[in-house]
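Notebook entry, structure prediction.
Reason for the run: the old model in the group folder had no record of what sequence produced it. Starting over properly, with the input documented here first.
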Amino acid sequence: MCLLLLSVVCSSTWAANTPCSGKKGGVARCDGELFLCSDGSVSASKKSCSSIYGGQSQARPQARVQEADGCACGTGSFCTGPRGGVYCLTPGGNKSYRRH
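New structure, fully documented this time:
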């Protein structure tokens, strides 16, 4: 009985620590080292998407722009907010901040 309970606790803990878990809907694809989630946001995970799922081994340069129209998530371009936060815009128009 204890082994079953331990395995349930471990699997729920593991699921909570995966990129794009919960309402984000899972990983849609990689954008260099970043995980793009199914909801259009960028995961805050510090793991490397390309090293887990294969593909590009080098991180591509991330352009930072000031205009909001040029920083859609998945394009590789990010905007910088007034307090220095780096983000991209999800398809729904929300900001998805990138971890430093």
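Summary: Helices lie at 2-16, 49-53.
The old model has been moved to the deprecated folder.
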